[in-house]
Amino acid sequence: MNLDRSVPVWPQVADDLRRRLDAGEWRPGDRFPGTVDIAAQYDISQSTAQKAVAAIRSEGRLRTVLGQGSFVCES
């Protein structure tokens, strides 16, 4: 994915992660990639990855279990 660095990056990453969720790359109950992995995959900072994941979590698509990570929720 080519990111447009002239605008905020985290919404672009969040949109791409949503697209991948919609495509079934991760199914309900699957562990979602951590922010370190997302940051490396998109070549962004970890704080930017955290913002993208937080946006998806706020939509109810992910749940986070302390010490275990984030998991995909039923749609």
TrEMBL record:
Pfam families, per the entry: GntR (PF00392)
SUPFAM superfamilies: Winged helix' DNA-binding domain (SSF46785)
UniProt keyword Nucleus present: no
InterPro entries referenced in this protein's UniProt entry, alphabetically: Bact_HTH_transcr_reg, Tscrpt_reg_HTH_GntR, WH-like_DNA-bd_sf, WH_DNA-bd_sf
An annotated Gene Ontology molecular function: DNA-binding transcription factor activity
Keyword DNA-binding on entry: yes
Coiled coil: none
CDD domains associated with the record: WHTH_GntR (cd07377)
Keyword entries, A-Z: DNA-binding, Transcription, Transcription regulation
GO biological process, one term: negative regulation of DNA-templated transcription
HTH gntR-type domain boundaries: 7-75
Protein name: Winged helix-turn-helix transcriptional regulator
Organism expressing this protein natively: Streptomyces pacificus
Lineage of source species: Bacteria, Bacillati, Actinomycetota, Actinomycetes, Kitasatosporales
